Amino acid sequence: MEQQQETFDVIGVGIGPFNLSLAALLDTQDVKAAFFEQKSEFAWHPGMLIEGTKLQVPFLADLVTMADPTNPHSFLNYISQQGRMYQFYILQRLDIPRREYNDYCNWASKRIESCRFGEKVTGIHRLEDGSHRVDVREEATGSEKSFFTKHVVLGTGSTPALPKALQGMPEEDVFHTADFEIQRHTCRDANRVTVVGSGQSAAEAFRELLKEQRTCGFSLDWITRSPGFASMEESKLNLEHFSPDYIDYYYPLSQEKKDEIFASQGLYYKGISEHTINEIYNMMYEYTVGGEELDVRLLPLTKVTGIEQKDGEYELTCHHYQKEDTYSKRTDKVIVATGYQPNVPEFVHDLSDIIEFDEYGRFKVTKDYRLVEKGENPYDIFANSGITHTHGVGSTNLGLAVFRSKVIVNQLLGEEVYTVQDSYVFQSFE
Ligand SMILES: Cc1cc2nc3c(=O)[nH]c(=O)nc-3n(C[C@H](O)[C@H](O)[C@H](O)COP(=O)(O)OP(=O)(O)OC[C@H]3O[C@@H](n4cnc5c(N)ncnc54)[C@H](O)[C@@H]3O)c2cc1C
């Protein structure tokens, strides 16, 4: 394995929006940094870049603005460089298209020298002096290299979660919404299509299929185990849960209490935006004008407990848990919208000699985003993702990316480069 002799101050693992924000803020500092991403270029949930979908936070939650509005990697600078400032001004919207957010991040990632693509981190090793060796595989050639660094920042994000009951089927027929844009064309030739789940991704997939259902002639079912197709809690005061103040309140609670609170906050992040529900309802209303029958069913309270391949179709076992009724349903395609789970690579678990995990195998994290070490060490491994269990419901919210970057930058540089205020919101959670 080739070994690079230069030592970095920090190496980032993964380039999603969180680590990209950190890379962007570090770009104007005197720091030797490298961020590695396994994909060949920046791509933010490519399977869900559906036309017409919007970023669910204002564009002000870009990579840098909330720390430093003058930073050249801001969204407004991107708009300006695209020659779209006047159009954007007339657009008068804070909620930019999801595709534009992706394009902006891609633009920024190409300008930030520390960002390296097509290189997968395969191992992290603690060295005797407390620094780290990071092993990297170049995806195109398979060649392997090692880099040395003081600090490491994990930003490996999340991976699609497919429930056991729906695993093991051909992926062109039973696929996660993460692959929706890649596979949706296959639904056009199907007789029956089923969407499972009732979050934002499920609703967007259902809405897109609803648009095509009558012309393509497939029947469409939307099944969820939830009691209803509930809307996300998006009131302004509730959005204050996605704030540094809420982290201040939440972080010191016992882990048991945190898990209990988080389990009760599903609609803060898992529901459907009211806008999407309205669109779906309005479409169904219009499609049924004049008594036209819609070959569409919305089935709440129903758990899909199994799937079997039968006669070239799929038989879903469904359980209505209030009526205690189990029945089967045939379909040709299943779109699984059951969310995401933290992506903690195996090499992080291999560090169990030096870092602490809780009883559920989740790493422990300090309030300022360092993995809790078993002993003293001059350098840190930071967690920029996978911290919902320690930092709460806002952990994956893009509105907190820049705040987290500020806290990490200040530690990496050993000084308060960015001010971190005491209070950001109106309410007190204490
Ligand atoms: C469809 C969708 C829409 C969303 N929309 C919003 C929204 O509008 N507003 C909001 O606040 N939140 C939104 N979220 C939630 C959240 O902001 C995103 O999930 C966001 O992408 C999280 O960013 P991240 O940087 O933590 O991880 P990710 O975006 O998951 O990026 C992690 C990166 O790490 C790379 N990686 C993993 N392992 C390695 C390795 N070993 N070596 C190198 N690279 C590696 C992966 O390839 C990936 O590119 C959305 C989530 C989804 C799924």
Automatic annotation (TrEMBL):
Q: Report the family membership.
A: Belongs to the lysine N(6)-hydroxylase/L-ornithine N(5)-oxygenase family.
Quote one Gene Ontology molecular function term.
Answer: L-lysine 6-monooxygenase (NADPH) activity
What keyword terms does UniProt attach to this protein?
FAD, Flavoprotein, NADP, Oxidoreductase
Matching SUPFAM superfamilies, A to Z? Answer: FAD/NAD(P)-binding domain
Q: In which pathway does it act?
A: Siderophore biosynthesis
Cofactor(s) this protein cannot do without: FAD
TM annotation in the entry: none
Q: Which domain of life is it from?
A: Bacteria
Which reactions are catalysed by this chain? L-lysine + NADPH + O2 = N(6)-hydroxy-L-lysine + NADP(+) + H2O
Cytoplasm as a keyword of this entry, yes or no, is: no
Which Pfam families does the record match to this protein?
A: Lys_Orn_oxgnase
- InterPro entries linked to this entry: FAD/NAD-bd_sf, Lys/Orn_oxygenase
**Under which name does UniProt file this protein?**
L-lysine N6-monooxygenase MbtG
Q: Please indicate if the UniProt record lists Transport as a keyword.
A: no
Task: List the EC numbers from the record.
Answer: 1.14.13.59
PANTHER family registered for this protein in UniProt: L-ORNITHINE N(5)-MONOOXYGENASE (PTHR42802:SF1), MONOOXYGENASE (PTHR42802)
